[in-house]
Amino acid sequence: MIIHLIDGTYELFRQFYGRRRAHQGEDAPFGAVVGVLHSVVEMIEQGATHLGVATDHIIESFRNALWSDYKTGEGIEPALLAQFHPLEGALAAMGVAVWPMTELEADDALASAARLASHDDRVQQVCIWTPDKDLAQCVSGDRVVQVDRKSRTIRNATGVREKFGVEPGLIPDFLALVGDTADGYPGISGIGAVTAARLLNQYGPIEDFPAPVLGDGRDRALLFKQLATLRTDAPLFRDVDELEWRGPTDAFAACAQRLGDARLLQRITAHRREHHDRIESRP
User: Fold this and answer.
1) How far apart are CA 206 and CA 184, in angstroms?
2) Whether residue 65 is found in the same domain as residue 85
3) Among residues 193, 208, 228, which one ends one of the domains?
């Protein structure tokens, strides 16, 4: 089986701004939610059987206590922020496993789910659907890969090395050195991507750098590495069978009505019948 892990927060942003451009700045109350749900339905129609979606139930996490400038919900448009919780409820009604994160971030949930799923011998591959460079640290050979829906790129371990110049396991060190403006930490002054890759390939992780290499910036680099390192210990599920999509719940019809999208209900209902027929035909 193939496990599909979806960055719900990223998808919500993508749908929100994509629809705003398409509708000349007008924001439907649940437009982004509907867009994400249609994307998930499309994946199911194309053969996905096991899915999980991670979301940021709140934007802040334990990392905000470590670095005061770490990203917060400040600046997120109210029309977008108002769709976070409805998305979680709609996914659950659609019968999709959803992990709303509070103390941890959606990225931590994806990393945790990838670790749990990859330890199951029945799993052929784990696909993490997000372009976020943080998740590159979870890539492992061809078994755990990163999928960028927008660019239609699948990145395995070789792809990570080609893009960043380092192995997946050194991505937290790489980000610590070059910084991550999206997450709100600046990296180490004077070190760009090329220099960071060279140092990491020469010395290994930041902890193994000779003291003079970073000088006074060593402690800050280690702090940034802590920010960039994703947690993999979130107890999201006990068995990948919990991620199998078995059809929408009885609450989904009312949910689709609230969202104002009849086509969504039609698509999911049609595929539920196909799914049921396939289950019934299993030996």
Assistant:
1) 20
2) yes
3) 228
Tokens of 167: 């192995």
The whole-angstrom separation of Cα 264 and Cα 36 is 11
Q: What does the alpha-carbon distance between residue 215 and residue 189 come to, in Å, rounded to a whole number?
A: 12
* pLDDT tens per residue across span 158-169: 999 999 999 999
Q: What is the CATH number of the domain that holds 108?
A: 3.40.50.1010
Given the DSSP bridges, would you call strands 153-155 and 2-7 parallel, antiparallel or unpaired? unpaired
Q: Provide CB contacts within 8 A for 165, sequence distance 6+.
A: 174, 193, 194, 196, 197, 198, 201
- The residues, any chain, with a CB within 8 Å of residue 265's CB and separated by 6 or more, are 252, 253, 256, 257
Name, of 22-26, 148-152, 245-249, the range with top average pLDDT. Answer: 245-249
Closest by alpha carbon to 136, among 170, 92, 187, 182?
Answer: 170
Total count of domains within the chain: 2
**pTM of the complete model:** 0.92
DSSP letter for 150, please: T
- Note whether 184 and 210 are same-domain residues: yes
Other C-beta atoms within 10 Å of 214: how many?
A: 18
259 plus 194 within the same structural domain: no
Looking at residue 171, which CATH number applies to its domain? 1.10.150.20
* Contact criterion met (CB below 8 Å) for 185 and 134: no
Parent domain of 176:
166-228
